[in-house]
Amino acid sequence: MGKRGSGSLSPEGFAFEESWAEKKRRAEEIVRILKEVYPRERHVSGEPYRTLIKCIISQRNRDEVTDRVAEELFRKYPTINDIANASVEKMQEFLRSLKVGLWRSKGRWIVEVSRIILERYDGRVPDTLEELMKLPGIGRKCANIVLAYGFGKPAIPVDTHVNRVSKRLGLAPLEASPEKVEEYLKVLIPKEEWLYVNHAMVDHGKKVCRPIKPKCNECPVRNLCPKVGIKFGT
Ligand code: SF4
């Protein structure tokens, strides 16, 4: 990057030289292409509570396991009241029987979160990052997922795929924490596109820009990627 970054973001740590304006243009083009290649049919559920519970279940679980467990959980406990009235032990046992990792913590969080939402928020999931992150078991990534996929608000959840893909594409410094990666992406990408970034980068990270042996030859943004298509500085 050039001499200046943006606000408090440091220009250090990128693998190549590029002006901030160039980086922004490149980021916008990358998002435009990824959106086309991985179209985002309506992923906003409009169900923030279910999105939140699903996010707790998903921690360190595969997507297929999460989907199956969430489906069974909402069949057994269809409403927030049903979950809030369940005992923590019963919820833990339920998760354990479905072989969910971290079942002890997740069982407690699921019941506690439901009770808190009923008692403190009148049964409505809070819709700000700050309030969401006060809930047990909800970190920054989950809070952003609830905002993006539950409420349809502009947010960029940074998971392992978004983290890796952003860094390979030179949109965040290699050593940046997920929180910093989120900050860089929010400065580089126009707000109206934030909602698409997680989905597009997750799909891209699973199918093409995989952790090991990324398929750079088939990559739709290879011409915009410093790893392959473009060379910057020395
Ligand atoms: S060119 Fe390779 S490293 Fe760059 S985004 Fe595509 S798959 Fe990832």
Automatic annotation (TrEMBL):
One matching Pfam family is HHH
Nucleus as UniProt keyword: no
Residues that coordinate or bind [4Fe-4S] cluster: C209, C216, C219, C225
Q: Respond yes or no to whether keyword Cell division is given for this record.
A: no
GO MF terms listed in the record are:
4 iron, 4 sulfur cluster binding; class I DNA-(apurinic or apyrimidinic site) endonuclease activity; DNA binding; G/T mismatch-specific thymine-DNA glycosylase activity; metal ion binding
Q: How is the cofactor bound?
A: Binds 1 [4Fe-4S] cluster.
Cofactor(s) in the UniProt record: [4Fe-4S] cluster
GO BP terms, alphabetized? base-excision repair, AP site formation
Top-level taxonomic group: Archaea
Give the catalysed reaction(s), semicolon-separated.
2'-deoxyribonucleotide-(2'-deoxyribose 5'-phosphate)-2'-deoxyribonucleotide-DNA = a 3'-end 2'-deoxyribonucleotide-(2,3-dehydro-2,3-deoxyribose 5'-phosphate)-DNA + a 5'-end 5'-phospho-2'-deoxyribonucleoside-DNA + H(+); Hydrolyzes mismatched double-stranded DNA and polynucleotides, releasing free thymine
Question: What Gene3D superfamilies does the entry give?
Answer: Helix-hairpin-Helix base-excision DNA repair enzymes (C-terminal), Hypothetical protein, domain 2
InterPro entries noted in UniProt: DNA_glycosylase, Endonuclease-III-like_CS2, Endonuclease3_FeS-loop_motif, Endouclease-III_FeS-bd_BS, HhH-GPD_domain, HhH_base_excis_C, HhH_motif, Nth
**Top EC category:** lyase
Swiss-Prot/TrEMBL keywords: 4Fe-4S, DNA damage, DNA repair, DNA-binding, Endonuclease, Glycosidase, Hydrolase, Iron, Iron-sulfur, Lyase, Metal-binding, Nuclease
Give the EC number(s) listed in the UniProt record: 4.2.99.18
Domain annotation HhH-GPD: ranges: 57-207
Functionally, this protein is described as follows: DNA repair enzyme that has both DNA N-glycosylase activity and AP-lyase activity. The DNA N-glycosylase activity releases various damaged pyrimidines from DNA by cleaving the N-glycosidic bond, leaving an AP (apurinic/apyrimidinic) site. The AP-lyase activity cleaves the phosphodiester bond 3' to the AP site by a beta-elimination, leaving a 3'-terminal unsaturated sugar and a product with a terminal 5'-phosphate.
What family classification does the UniProt entry report for this protein?
A: Belongs to the Nth/MutY family.
**Protein's name according to its UniProt entry:** Endonuclease III
State which gene encodes it: nth
